[in-house]
Amino acid sequence: MHFDGLRTYRAAHPQCVLLMLSDLRSGTVLAADGALAYPQENLDALSALTRDAFDMAGLATDYVALQTPQATRIFKKVPQLGSVALTCVCNPYADIAELLAGMHRFAGSMEIPEIAA
C-alpha cells in the first residue's frame, strides 16, 4: 500500500529507507514506502514496535527515537488523525533532528480523509 506523501518525504530525506503510516490501536499498517519491498510480516512487526514504543513512553509523548548499531527508528504521532503514527527507519548515524523536523512538517500537512455518506 502506498501514499504519495510517504514517497515525497523519502525523496526529500534520503537517509530514510522506509517510511510507514500505521494505526496504533489496531497495529495495522496503513501505508508504506521503502527503498526496498518489505515483506508484510516485517511491516507488521515494525507497526507493533511503533505501538510498543509509545506505550512505554507514555500518552503525552509526541515522538520516540530509538538508535541502535543497526538502525535508527523514529516514531511520530499524527494527532489530527487520532491513533495514527509515522515510522521512519534509517541508518544508525542518521540526523534525528533533521528527520524529525521533516516528519513534523509532513504530519502537520496530513488531513483527515472525508468518508462518503
Structure notes:
There is one protein chain. This protein has 117 residues and is α+β, with helices and mostly antiparallel strands. It contains three helices and five strands, in the order αββαβββα. It has helices at residues 4-12, 40-57, 96-109, and strands at 16-23, 29-34, 63-67, 72-78, 84-90. The protein has a five-stranded antiparallel sheet, with helices on both faces. A hairpin with a 4-residue loop joins strand 3 (63-67) and strand 4 (72-78). The longest helix is centred in the middle third of the chain and has 18 residues, at 40-57. The model has no long low-confidence stretch (mean pLDDT 88).
Summarize this entry quickly.
The protein is of the alpha+beta class and 117 residues long. The protein contains 3 helices and 5 strands.
Question: What tags apply to this protein structure?
Answer:
117 residues; alpha+beta; 3 helices; 35% helix; globular
